[in-house]
Amino acid sequence: MDIDSLIDEVIAREGGYSNHPADRGGPTRFGITQAVARAQGYAGDMRAFSRAQAVAIYRKLYWTAPGLDRIAHHAPRLAAELFDTGVNMGPGVATNFLHRALNALNRGGSDYADIPVAPTVTPDTEKALAALMARRGRQGEIILLRAVEALQGERYLRLAEQRPANEAFLYGWLSGRIANTR
Questions:
Q1: Which of 28, 58, 119, 137 lies at a 20 to 30 A Cα distance from 16?
Q2: pTM for the structure as a whole
């Protein structure tokens, strides 16, 4: 799966313009919040925000900047999940999940050293992932993917517990992002 396909999937799922009263993101188009669009230089009404602008933001902020393009070389399904998680929760959250899961799967450091939990992919991330894949093969990617999804699911539940208005989104988050198998 390439980044263009991933972006197309996200835009199809997120839809056009939205301004749901329970969504703290405020006005959103193609899944890009007004705050993110403004930070990238867009000053217009979100109803007029173009698909091309959304694609450029997804590619830059949610794929390249956190380093998911480098993860895709080793583990494409994992990179796709991290991209989707980053779109929904922020790219730093997604890479934090990756680092935490890699650390938990290193068998107390006997397979590879713990790595710092960071908001982007680092050379240490790539080394740890390569070591996991060398030891566990493609099954390692699947297990790592499931660990990231578990962290994501726990965060969704916590968000709904802490802010009851988020319960309006919980079912969709879980069905569209956790139970969604690529």
A1: 119
A2: 0.89
**Which tokens belong to 64?**
């390249």
pLDDT (tens place) for every residue of the chain, 182 residues total: 799 999 999 999 888 999 988 777 889 999 999 999 999 999 999 999 999 999 999 999 999 999 999 999 999 999 999 999 999 899 999 999 999 999 999 999 999 999 999 999 999 999 999 999 999 999 999 999 999 999 999 988 888 899 888 788 888 778 777 755 44
Cβ burial 67-89 (10 Å sphere, 16+ → b, else e): bbebbbebbebbbbbbbbbbbbb
List the domains of the chain with CATH numbers. Answer: 1-64 (1.20.141.10), 67-182 (no CATH)
Nearest partner of 88 among 32, 45, 142, 141, judged by Cα: 32
What are the tokens at 4?
A: 């263009």
Q: In this structure, what token pair is assigned to residue 35?
A: 């705050």
